[in-house]
UniProtKB/TrEMBL annotation:
PROSITE patterns assigned: ADH_SHORT (PS00061)
Protein keywords: NADP, Oxidoreductase
GO MF terms, alphabetically ordered: oxidoreductase activity, acting on CH-OH group of donors
Any one Pfam family match given in the protein's UniProt record, by short name: adh_short_C2
Name this polypeptide is given: Short chain type dehydrogenase
InterPro entries: NAD(P)-bd_dom_sf (IPR036291), Sc_DH/Rdtase_CS (IPR020904), SDR_fam (IPR002347)
Source organism: Talaromyces proteolyticus
Keyword hit for NADP: yes
Transmembrane segments: none
Assigned protein family: Belongs to the short-chain dehydrogenases/reductases (SDR) family.
Organism taxonomic ancestry: Eukaryota, Fungi, Dikarya, Ascomycota, Pezizomycotina
PANTHER family associated with the record: NADPH-DEPENDENT ALDEHYDE REDUCTASE-LIKE PROTEIN, CHLOROPLASTIC-RELATED, RE15974P
């Protein structure tokens, strides 16, 4: 298989749908073998594997908010492919009812376990099997820097702020081995998750946030991730890559 990622092994969490699905397929088109991680959507995950080809892809079920399942996932990947060159930590929990008075301890713990604790320990475990020059891509959101954010995103954005700080420090640590660690921060992207709980009026308004007056596409995020996974991005490390069509600038 030819391509800029030929011979590479990529692990994409939450890869059965949305941005994760688009990313898995984009990485495979560039020659990578891809692990399609999922937590419940086995049918959708198998469809991704079918599209890529079973000779270069495998679906592995694991809840990447649970440390024991993280350990098992990494072991399965290494057993199958022998290494992990690219880690894309797409899986996460979106919380849209997080105004201060609505947050209890259970909600706080659940979203931090999924969005912060899980990615932290997955990187820790995966790094043992990433050759020098590998790539790690975490996920935040453009909401961490946009000024018109509403209070209901308080808990979600708090976790993503933690991810951005993890990225800055991990980039220094793993950069000694030529492994780059960066964060991908999409704006509104047309996925199933994005449309949950939104009225047509809300969607119409959010289209206006970008100068092009539209919502982004999952494939547009996947294209950036594919570049970040390649050799061409070697000198980009510790950065927050915002993909939002100009919703935030500067």
């Amino acid at each position: 298989m030819s391509g800029s990622l030929a011979g590479k092994v990529a692990l994409v969490t939450g890869a059965s749908r949305g941005i994760g699905r688009a990313t898995a397929i984009a990485l495979a088109k560039e020659g990578a073998s891809v692990v399609v991680n999922y937590v419940s959507s086995v049918g959708a995950a198998e469809e991704v594997v079918k599209e890529i080809g079973a000779n270069r892809s495998v679906a592995i079920k694991a809840d990447v908010s649970e440390i024991n399942e993280i350990m098992d996932l990494i072991q399965q990947v290494v057993k199958k492919f022998g290494k992990i060159d690219i880690v894309v930590l797409n899986a996460g929990l979106l919380w849209q009812n997080g105004a201060l008075n609505n947050i209890d301890e259970n909600a706080f713990d659940k979203i931090f376990q999924t969005n912060v604790k899980g990615p932290f320990f997955l990187v820790q475990e995966a790094a043992k099997h990433i050759p020098d020059g590998g790539r790690i891509l975490l996920f935040s959101t453009s909401l961490t820097s946009v000024s018109m954010i509403t209070p209901n995103y308080l808990l979600y954005v708090t976790t993503k702020g933690a991810v951005e700080q993890m990225t800055r420090v991990m980039a220094k640590d793993l950069g000694k081995r030529g492994i780059t660690v960066n964060t991908i921060s999409p704006g509104p992207i047309s996925t199933d998750t994005y449309f949950v709980g939104k009225t047509e009026e809300m969607i119409k308004l959010q289209r206006t946030f970008a100068p092009a007056n539209r919502i982004g596409k999952a494939e547009e995020v996947a294209d950036v991730i594919t570049f970040m996974a390649s050799k061409k991005s070697q000198w980009i490390n510790g950065q927050n890559i915002q993909i939002n069509g100009g919703m935030t600038v500067g």
